[in-house]
Design brief:
5-stranded parallel beta sheet; 236 residues; Rossmann fold; globular; alpha/beta; 54% helix
Length: 236
């Protein structure tokens, strides 16, 4: 049935339509490899006044743990070749030690104030700690552009065969998929498991950061946009 939006758009007073988005204490940002997720996350945090954390920075919060980024990389080599079950991953001797260290680091990061955590935590893990959280996926749809960006990375700058680079990109994403499989029943990268999905290929690195910063600013951003819309209507 067709509905005339000119009559249906006025929902003033109807509570079902009045929910207001509030800036979350934490944004968990998952990103496909070479979607520029970390770059976008850092830029968005600078705009919104959030702290940025990824694996390297989280480990700096818990130097007493004895877990180094080299330890994490050695473990993640086991997550590269294939998609694994939760039981297979959690049975690995390194899993509990590394996962518990990142969990402890996340506690410290969250206690410091509003933050973005890249890749290491799931939304429900943050909420279980008593913090509000918005989950975001950064993805990119241009496979050729992802290959070009991969070649800029020191990890893969020596590679020239597009097929080999494509497989390396898949391996990087398998690490993220497997890590999330061990953490949560909600699959990594599946878009209906996120509050917001941003195609960085469409919006570009800088504007994607503007969008993400708007998510962090929440009500403040909402009031700015609403004010602009009101100003526009007054001039019409």
């Amino acid at each position: 049935m067709a509905e005339d939006i000119r009559k249906a758009a006025d929902t003033a007073g109807l509570q079902e339509f009045e929910k207001q988005y509030r800036a979350p204490h934490c944004v968990v940002l998952d990103s496909e490899y070479c979607s520029m997720g970390r770059m976008i996350g850092v830029r968005a945090c600078r705009m919104a006044g959030y702290a940025y954390y990824d694996a390297v920075i989280l480990l700096e919060l818990v130097p007493e743990s004895g877990v180094s980024i080299a330890d994490v990389e050695a473990f993640e080599k086991k997550l590269r070749p294939a998609l694994l079950s939760k039981e297979e991953i959690t049975a690995m001797p390194e899993w509990e030690r590394i996962a518990s260290v990142f969990d402890r680091a996340a506690d410290i990061a969250l206690a410091k104030g509003p933050c973005l955590i890249h890749d290491r935590m799931a939304k429900e893990m943050i909420e279980a700690k008593g913090y509000s959280c918005t989950s975001v996926l950064m993805y990119a749809t241009d496979a050729d552009a992802k290959i070009v960006r991969a070649k800029v990375s020191p990890l893969y700058s020596s590679l020239s065969d597009p097929a080999v680079i494509t497989e390396k990109i898949r391996e990087e994403d398998r690490i993220r998929i497997n890590t999330r499989t061990a953490q949560s029943d909600k699959a990594w990268g599946r878009k209906d498991n996120y509050d917001l999905c941003i195609n960085s290929e469409t919006f570009g690195r800088d504007y994607a950061a503007v969008i993400l910063a708007g998510v962090m600013k929440g009500e403040q951003h909402h009031e700015t946009i609403t004010g602009r819309l009101s100003l526009g209507r007054s001039h019409s």
